[in-house]
Write a structure and sequence with these properties.
The structure is a homodimer.
Chain A: E1 7-8, E2 11-18, E3 28-36, E4 39-45, H1 46-52, E5 53-54, E6 57-60, E7 65-68, E8 70-75, H2 91-106, H3 109-125, E9 128-135, H4 138-148, E10 151-158, H5 169-183, E11 189-195, H6 203-216, E12 220-224, H7 228-238, H8 242-248, E13 256-260, H9 266-275, E14 278-281, H10 283-288, H11 296-301, E15 306-308, H12 321-336, H13 344-350, H14 353-358, E16 376-379, H15 392-399, E17 405-410, E18 413-417, E19 420-421, H16 426-440
Parallel strand pairs in A: 1-5, 2-6, 2-7, 8-9, 9-10, 10-11, 12-13, 13-14, 14-15
Antiparallel strand pairs in A: 2-3, 3-4, 7-16, 16-17, 17-18, 18-19
Helix pairs in contact in A: 3-4, 3-16, 5-6, 12-13, 12-15, 13-15
Chain lengths: ~450, ~450
């Protein structure tokens, strides 16, 4: 049959099962998806899509799963260059004897640019299409992100002290404003404010960050209530918990993205819900650093928006959000001795549409719906560990890893095809990683 | 330079870093390994090995890591055909409404043979070379294992009740004896006794199993102290904990392999140590079923031999021992709020030489040492999530997955080369998995 009036699309993906993750949607066994102008033009059965669209590029999903790209809500991309430099140490020793000295000595523009590219290669390979990052020299992170073609929230880190890129908070604030002005209208990069924590940023610095965030209409990201020692230190200094300290400053709001949120009491959880604060859960990092188990089921029960993040490669030690989903689902079950908490569908939502809500991008990404940006991945299913398929959502959470991702499209552009990166020179990036390793730790 | 008197080997693996995991060994940057007659003939620097050996087959590790194959201490291979059939349910509902009825309805010779082949394909792909299995129709498991070429401990399951393959324990005991006699001199298959649990096997049945194990000099494997409800039920029935119940029967010994061991008090841990009982830890299964956190650091501190297992694909839901190592290392850290417990080297040992000790195979496998069986894997390192390399042991535990395994040699025979399975027809196995899925759950 011929359809003479079909509209023109850029890419049509065929021959796969569609898992759109649109609210109340069901998987479509023999589905197709049309992309035009960077957005999803059609999604449905192959017959439906091909009745209305034709395209110069037909992508074959080879019987795989066509689904939204994953959303990694919290990481520190350049730190992949320190992956495995130090592990299994008390938090104090790890930070003060290894990570902080290494950052002081090595973090510069080149480190950040190439370290970020290494992480972006890993993210694309494992199916992440949107990432929220916070570090130093964030303009170098932005340059790498633009090259790779990911979607990103980027926050220049700020503290009371000199940082690797700024001799003072004053200088950092200047850099941040310039960064926001440069990227506030970028299609893929969303600048944010990123004061490090309530114990490394004074109340006045936090308020100035918040004022800037408000002025530019961008979110503010912070590490919050991550460790018991943070709660103790903030208690000594301000006589309050970290959450109540922020409440006292008037900083709990729906434009705040709070990462970790491990040490919360009932009052804190109620406040986060009341103020609409968005939360990013990082279970593998919280486990590896022995920070604790965040009360995620309790937050979700209160209606708090919760996304999923890997944190940096030093405390994980990879950026694979598929593995993070698996661990998130299992950790809360054993912590509560209840196998019904955190079912696979809830966890998958945290890594897709729920994560997009946390980053304020739910109208653009997180599900495959007509009009949304085309951030799409194809996951191979014809592999021994992914067969047979009774419930594809269970497989994504409990059985798959990022290595099962075959193709990645971001903003309508193919960035990985049959596991080959198209926007990045992987060999060059791996060579740079080895060069930096030889500098950082001569063998 | 020419070495006229070099000895002949079958395979020499070159161009990789050797991580032998022999006690007190260090990685060898430019290493090589010679295999002759199924055993390791030489391991050392490329120059050393090539000075003494030549071989018709030179395997290029392409800069990867040459290390011992992993040892999966506990699983139920055929259950991969139920992968994802039911998750996120209370243990009672999961077992009684889903798993037991599905087993009753579907488990037969064909299910076991093809389900096992699916699992073996997954195991080889993810670098496991030795596996301990317990299920029904174990002769079909053995047939599949022989075809795949893995090393295995296989136990025919036995209970007080009729099982899928035996109308009574009497029949099961007959089958078990025949199975042991058939395989007791097999080079790759080691038969074991496998009474299911102390609450599904009467004291007299346990004693008969133990008598048989003693007669044939094979280990006895059992699920022990896995769940709180097991402890409660055994307490009601025998007035004792599961461990003390076995002690009362005189069954705690160094020929007992106890899987799970989650619910142990101080007295139980001391007894396991005193009697030399060997333990298999299955953290992902214990998390997913919300069974609890096994006191592994406490057992290791008492000198108990502890290996690592995935358990079956229904409670994990994959057989990737690399991911299991990652979760094992992290779970105990967060459970004790101590990031120094279960360092990567300890966890890697549990999955290699330590696991071999648990299965009684430490003289044959678990490390790359001259004279041992050649069970060797090559792990790719030139991948974004595995660079840079400061500490390769950290990477194996925290950053790698089974998908990073490139080549697998078992008993001196190449069974996977550049990710292609050589002993199994993967397409046929995947097609069978889909056939069984369509029978089990018509869409």
């Amino acid at each position: 049959m011929v359809f003479p009036h079909r509209k023109s699309a850029d890419i049509i993906i065929i021959n796969g099962m569609i898992l759109s993750l649109a609210p109340d949607s069901q998987p479509i066994e023999k589905g197709a998806l049309a992309i035009a102008g960077g957005r999803i033009a059609a999604v449905g059965s192959k017959e439906e899509v091909e009745a209305f669209y034709h395209a110069p590029q037909i992508m074959n999903a080879h019987g795989g799963l066509i689904m939204p790209g994953l959303v990694n809500g919290h990481t520190h991309l350049p730190m992949s260059f320190f992956r495995g430099l130090a592990d299994d140490l008390s938090l104090d020793v790890w930070l003060k004897e290894y990570i902080f000295p290494a950052e002081k000595k090595w973090v510069n523009e080149g480190f950040v640019y190439w370290g970020t590219l290494l992480s972006l290669a890993e993210l694309i390979r494992s199916g992440t299409t949107t990432v929220a990052d916070g570090y130093f020299f964030e303009e170098e992170v932005a340059r790498a992100v633009e090259k790779a073609g990911l979607r990103a929230l980027l926050g220049q880190g700020i503290l009371d002290f000199p940082s690797p890129d700024s001799p003072s908070p004053e200088e950092a604030l200047k850099k941040i404003q310039a960064f926001i002005q440069q990227y506030q209208h970028s299609p893929l990069i969303h600048p944010v404010l990123f004061p490090h924590t309530v114990y490394t940023c004074s109340p006045s610095l936090l308020l100035r960050c918040s004022e800037l965030a408000g002025r530019y209409g961008v979110p503010m990201v912070i590490h919050l209530a991550e460790t018991r020692s943070e709660v103790e230190e903030v208690g000594r200094r301000y006589g309050k918990s970290p959450v109540l300290h922020l409440e006292g400053l008037g900083l709990l709001s729906s434009s705040l993205i709070a990462c970790h949120c491990v040490w919360l009491g009932e009052e804190e959880m109620d406040l986060l819900a009341l103020r609409g604060v968005r939360v990013v859960h990082n279970p593998e990092s919280n486990m590896k650093l022995a920070s604790g188990v965040a009360p995620v089921p309790e937050l979700l029960a209160r209606g708090v928006r919760v996304g999923l993040g890997t944190d940096g490669s030093c405390s994980n030690n990879n950026l694979d959000l598929f593995q993070e989903m698996d661990v998130a689902a299992k950790l809360h079950k054993v912590h509560r001795l209840d196998p019904t908490v955190m079912p696979s569908s809830v966890v998958l939502e945290m890594a897709t549409l729920g994560g997009a809500r946390v980053l304020g991008l739910e109208k653009e990404v997180g599900s495959l719906e007509v009009g949304k940006k085309a951030d799409v991945i194809v996951v191979e299913l014809s592999r021994p560990h992914l067969q047979p398929v009774y419930n594809v959502v269970s497989h994504l959470v409990y059985s798959a890893t990022g290595a099962d991702v075959r193709d990645v499209v971001i903003d309508g552009k193919l960035v990985m095809e049959n596991r080959k990166l198209l926007t990045l020179d992987e060999e060059e990036i791996l060579a740079k990683a080895k060069e930096w390793r030889d500098k950082i730790k001569p063998s």
